[in-house]
Hints:
539 residues, Immunoglobulin-like, five-stranded antiparallel β-sheet, 5% helix
Amino acid sequence: MKKIWLHVIVVLASLVFFSQCAKKGNPSGGPKDSIPPIIVKSNPENYSSNFTGDEIRIYFDEFIKLKDLQQNLVVSPPLKYQPVITPITSAKVLKIKILDTLRDNTTYVFNFGKSIVDNNEENEFDYFKYVFSTGDYIDSLKVEGKVSDALKPQLEGKATVMLYEASEEFNDSIVFQEKPYYITTTKDNDPSFELTNLKEGNYVMIALQEESNNYIFEPKKDKIGFIQEFITVPVDSAASFQLTLFEETPNYRLTRPSHVSKHKIAFGFEGEIDSLTIEPMFELPEGYVSKTLRDPKKDSLNYWFKPAFDMEVTDTLTFLAKNIGLIDTLEVRLRDLYADSLQVSLKGGGTLTPKDTVRFQSNTPLVKADVEKLTIMDQDSLFLEKQLVLDEKNNEALLLFDKKDENTYQIKALPEAFTDFFENTTDTLEYTLRTKPASDYGTIDFTLSGIESFPVIVELLNEKFQVVTSEYLEENKAVSFTYLVPNKYYLRIIYDANGNKQWDTGNFLLKTQPEKVVYYPSQIEVRSNWSLNENFILE
């Protein structure tokens, strides 16, 4: 009996021991799979010639699935109808069902990008290409190059590079209407491209960054870059093409005008309006005057007028709009609206630097700013000398006075300091502004070397690529940017080829490239109480 109990105790103890051992860890299942799928065979084989079928099967050594296929797949030349590609879930066979009638004697390339992954770990089978020809041989010529952004230091996202045959039927409008003959894309975080399996001939090369991925240039949505001349394939083995993407300025067009307040009509527009004039085509009431100002926040021209119209007598106004030789007749339906009341505010925040200009802005057109009704007192209770300059084009009043570091300024505008187009005046306005100590800021001093031509625009940008400060140089000299808030900045040079003191974009139909922009090779970090001295060598 004792032996039986002893045996039971030994068995129980063993079970407890092994159960405790089992609790110490979980089965690992071996190392994590990091190997992408492998192709076992293809039917027809990759790089086959004399292709006559409408289905392709590619067999893998494990289950695969398709991830973001529409964003990755590039078929060159493009097909009219999208092929049916499976699996929808997962399988060991990738099937391509072609719905088009294929061209004779043509090499086709299916580039799957990063869309083929294994089913479990999603290891990518990167940039797999399936190539076949409907003729006797596979075209094997290629061209390569890089794509850049006209205004950014690096290309952001992918770009599509395309070739159109430069045949007798080709004209520039084709890029707005038809798909190209050959297509490829840049890879993630890589601006380089390669167009392969090309046939001999002359081509037009363009690059697009598209919103809809339809391989058609849509100027209001897409960026475009192009090579000025036809390219001839085959090219020299050392040839590399550089395409620069830019957004075109839309063609000039007026949108439907709108009566937005009692004395204000907004004329929306697209494109350039530097010479746009708005002329009334109705009988002017006695004392009628108007003023036109560009809206600072949107593409709209604000037409202010007085006196207001009696809605029971006049409910529609007609205007003649003239711009760069184009004439439009526009009708505005009047509404019963309230008039805008004058509101003057200080532009920007309550902190400024000694180099900043204090700016007053208004919601209605300013016509008078009375400096005698405005005072500035510093922290020592001293009244300062000042000037008040009216900038009617930008509808601002500029307050000029000497400012010092680490100071406080009390600005007081007495009643009637500002008067608008409708003879409304402001009540008392009071503001407190301050300057920080100079040690809170940094400075960048730099010289320029290797400039091809003048004038140039030197711009300092923040991390959102917004211009913080700039300087216009008509000859080479040292540049100093002072009172910079500690941050990381970009520095760039714009070659102002036409001397209009601004960067100008390109135009595909006019065959104009954007003005050249060169970035300093790295971001510049500015620290408090710190001065950087740099030499910007332009290559």
